[in-house]
Amino acid sequence: MPRLNHRTILVLGLSLLVTACAGARRAPMTSPTVADVPLGTRRVISGATGQTVPFAEMADAAAKVDVVYFGEQHDDEETHRVELALLSAIGERRTKVVLSLEMFERDVQPVLDSYLAGRIGEAEFREQSRPWPNYGADYRPMLELARAKGWPVIAANVPRRLASMVSRRGLAVLDSLPPADRAFTARDNDCPKDQYYRKFVDVMGGGHGGAASGGGAAGMDAMMDQFYQAQCIKDETMAESIVAARAKAGNDAIVVHVTGAFHSDDALGTVSRVTRRVPGVKTLVVSAVPTADPANEPATEYLSRGQFIIFALRIRP
């Protein structure tokens, strides 16, 4: 990958923090079933065998664990259809379900709870909860399914403004936050330079040494580290939210966490941080891969991402 300049890395870093996708507005999905969707539209792959498997096999496996992570590409239409179907299928197999969403931030949890309880209407909810631009088409169907079923929904993510502060000043900035803001971030944060860090640096451009405005290679390294710390605070906060939600719902509950695939692929990111908090927790990772040809997309390079890989028809270029 070619070296990136200071400005390019800054833009990429901010794009990782501000993950809401503008996307074209689409009509909301109305059906949570995919049993009859043709193979050419989506294909489910077992990460263990590399073989194509029925959707029901994935749903059965998902329903047997404590936490399911659905790693999505935020602006992919078919991916959202399949994740809605999987959520519905899990609900048919488990009595107690909790829906956890990266797309809502912790400080709007009271607004979300008020909407789920019927104390406020949808217009007020959407006005106060900062939904992503593609909420209506892509996330509303899941939230409305949870609302109809009486399932809790968790606004799992750290407020973007706080993650942005970490991206500029590092994790140390958490110590200076007012108690009310500090409560919106994970209490315990660990940000080692491990496999996840190396993956993050690679995605951000890797090999970024050389002169650049703002301090040369050392300055670039420091900036990369702060962007990574902002990534970590998102993962740590979502992990803490997931653990707290399951503890509140009871050990017989299943949490379905919908997130960007980078946060869950290879059982890194949020997944590893939940496991650190609850050793022995049973997890299942689903990773969606939009492609122009789901039926024939080679699977080998994707198998490590999760127990199941979904090749979803990319409708938009």
Q: Can you give keywords for this protein?
A:
317 residues; 8-stranded mixed beta sheet; 11 helices; 8 strands; globular; disordered N terminus
Which regions contain 5 or more consecutive residues with pLDDT less than 50?
1-12, 14-25, 208-213
State the CATH class. Alpha Beta
Give the H and E element order: HEEHEHEHHHEHHHHEHEE
SS-based structural class? alpha/beta
What global shape is seen?
globular
Span between termini: 22 Å
In the CATH hierarchy, the third-tier topology is known as: Rossmann fold
* Biggest pleated-sheet summary: 8 strands, mixed
Q: Write down the oligomeric state.
A: single chain
Whole-number mean pLDDT = 88
Based on CA atoms alone, the radius of gyration comes out at 19 Å
| Number of helical elements | 11
Q: Into which percent range does the helicity of residues fall? A: 40-55%
List the domain count as a whole number: 1
Query: In order across it, which strands form the biggest sheet?
Result: 2-1-8-7-3-6-4-5
Please report which band the strand proportion falls in: under 5%, 5-15%, 15-25%, 25-35%, 35-45% or over 45%.
15-25%
CATH structural architecture:
3-Layer(aba) Sandwich
Total count of strands: 8
Question: Could you describe the 3D structure shown?
Answer:
With 317 residues, the protein is an alpha/beta fold. The chain has a single domain, classed as Rossmann fold, CATH 3.40.50.11550. It is built from 11 helices and 8 strands. The longest helix has 34 residues, at 216-249. It starts with 5 loop residues before the first helix and ends with a strand.
